[in-house]
Fold these 3 entries.
Entry 1:
Amino acid sequence: MGPHRYILLLGFITSFVVTLFTMPSLIKVARMKHLVDEPSEERKIHSRSVPTIGGIIIFAAILFSYSLWFPQASVLGFSIEDFKVLYQDMGAAYKDFKFTIAVMVLLFFIGVKDDIIGFSPVKKLVGHMIVAYILVVMGGVRIRDMHGILGVYELPEEISIAFSCFTYVVLVNAFNLIDGVDGLAAGIGLIAASAYGLWLYWAGDVALALLAFTLAGALVGFLVFNYHPARIFMGDSGSLIIGAIISILAMRVIDHDVSKLPRWLAAVPTPLFAMSAIAYPLVDTLRIFSIRLAKGRSPLAADRNHIHHRLMDLGLGHRSVTLILYCYAVAMIALSLITRDILPNKGLLVLGVTAFVLAVLPFTLTSRKAP
């Protein structure tokens, strides 16, 4: 096992251990200070008060582990020659590191304020616009090429910037919207982070793979306390961080050099692989926004029309719902690999139709609950 593999393993273990051993203290403090979510609203599906600031520990674990193990020539004693081979463009890697830390800190404060005392939608939107500017314009984290999807290849700079900002906003809100069942958002984030982490590792990008694996480690630790029955929720402070990191990883995967990938993986168009890893939050968000707009409502208005709500209305419990949706997420990634040898647009059609058919299926079944 090369030293770069140890870095990824250490990053995962460190964020996992930090989350596992610090979360109980946060739960205790949150209950003492009454920083809990009460089951008072009709759309909430938990029946007891639960602390809502788990994102604080997720943020701290990722920040500590990512900063501690970020690659450098002296780590684990490997030579400067090895370092140059592994990290041929450290300027880009440090740039990603710098701006990722900056937006994480900004989103953390936005999320914590929203979790504790609330945050107006306008101020929240301004915060997301600032984050999008930092990531896309200053950090250069953007989609520059669609690799033939829908006949589109290289994007003009203005369109690339606008589309990348839109992608960030959609993904951040998508992970916030699916955080409605114990273990769901964290589990879907874990699956996506693991898929991107392995892809980036095989592509030779250890620095970005480290970001994915530190997120994965923190989410595994968090699931110990968030899986049903949940002892704590991640809140906006967690969902915003997860959505932002996933958006960074997704955009970097789409724009990445695939020359170092195994042939079987390099054959998968990068936009399709990136979308398959986040298929569930994308499909649920697109579906729910379309329904709300069709009814003349704000797309951000809360309701019980999410896929996870429908599955629970069919009589399934938290654990069954999360397991079904985990399988959905994994199946979409597997499907992107299975369809790698067909034309990109045909692969997009297969993935899109399958994703939406599976998403609509629960709404065709008869509910066990009385209307």
Entry 2:
Amino acid sequence: MMLQKCITSQRIPWQAVVVADQTVADLHLDRLVPCLPPSPVVLTFQTGEASKSLTRVEQLCEQLADARVERQAVVVAFGGGVAGDLAGFVAAVWLRGVRFVQVPTSLLAAVDAAVGGKTGVNLRAGKNLIGAFHQPLAVIVDTDFLQTLAARDFAAGLAESVKHAVIRDPEFLNWHEAHAGEIVGRDPAVISHLIARNCEIKAVVVARDEREAGPRAILNYGHTIGHALEHLLGYELRHGECVALGMLAENELACARGWLGRPEADRVRNLLARLGLPVALAQPVQPDDVWAACQVDKKVRDAAVHFVLVRSVGDPMRVTDISAAEVARALQAIQPP
């Protein structure tokens, strides 16, 4: 079993602590436990973005204390992006930091969330406002886990893949277009290549700027407006769905400034639609509400909202002078028809 080979190859004596969302635990825990040292501590939490809270962090830490988990422990984040963010943050703060391993079971986590060392939880004010940079000891991707994903959840992960292609690799964007049918059909060889290339792209970016002091910020393409939509809609949409809509709105900002050509913007829209991602909201949002949410995002610096826009595929730029009026006009492109 690939998963077992990867975990046992670490050759590190460790006490295993599994932190998994309940749905993933029900589906896959029996495959993970035999790969771990005997008698792992298993902690589960309710599936969904609502579990990314300080209340849940405190509950998990109390359970670690009850289990007498020591500094040599390794936390195994088992699940999608929520599990990785939550378990990674718990690992970052427990005993001032213990090692952790990412075992992503969603496509979004495999191509993006599990790579890079960002962990965090949400506040009422916004998404991921409390967190820590805490690099995993390893990221172990077993594509067999993806077979149980619902079509909507699988498609949501593809938004981050398109994002990476648009900001870093024009040939990879061409590849998405050429293999869209096989991607949606979950062809094993195609999906393995997709995951591997995404991990390569993100790892290179993160290695140059681990704590997002500058260059790593290009990974936020689609996320300024995307995070605002996610928060405003009460996390009813998947993160990847909001990123897709965020990319489209932010492409409109770039088009309006004469940086991005309309054919390239339409190309991204068409690809997202082919991959099963939304290209319009199901319900209207108020531009003023979106702008207000953007202003409390963690990407705000010196009171300026930071956006990542693209001048062309593979040529991103950071922009700090976008106005509320520009955002309002850009949102028209993703409002319900």
Entry 3:
Amino acid sequence: METLEIQVDARDPGSKQKARRLRRSGKIPGVLYGPKTQTIALELNKKEFSSRVAGLEGSHLVRLKSDATSLVDKVALVKEMQFHPITGEVVHADLYEVDLTAKIRVQVPLHFVGKAVGVVRGGILQPIVREIEVECLPLDIPDFFNVEVSDLDIGDSAHIEDLTMPEGIKAIYESNLALVAVVPPTVEEAPTPTAAPVEAVAVAPAAPEETKESES
């Protein structure tokens, strides 16, 4: 995995108002933490981080460049990003410091490649999961896994045990997890015809019979 270098600076943690002022100045507030690292409040260059890191798929390592001696050349995993609900811009980033010699667990995205036989026959390719968890050294984190689906017919599925793991990478799962399947096409049932409503017809009451007068 490629390690991206980004510029960071330490900042004094503060209120939400301080964070808003920081964002208005073109910075993103963040934090660096880890099992052997005391939490450090950070500020990151918004333009650099958004263009080089925020839009990338999967897990990514960053090497920190800073004037602060406590941050120089630390390597971290981008653990979490928070986005503005309307603009979609990054508003906060959590960085997790890693030891390059110790294995970690991360999520790796799946790419489904090929055109399934079952899809040609009218079936629907249905991904079941979009990423899987693996354990490996930080520098060995895959960008993604390709899942070949060309041979899948209707009713077939590909499982996690079908994936070939590179050396040093272990998939974490308890059962042979299904990753993708080809399902039969959805057939919409024709609507059941309903009887036309019977219109009520007003019936005039019968005229009463005239009483014949008795002849005198």
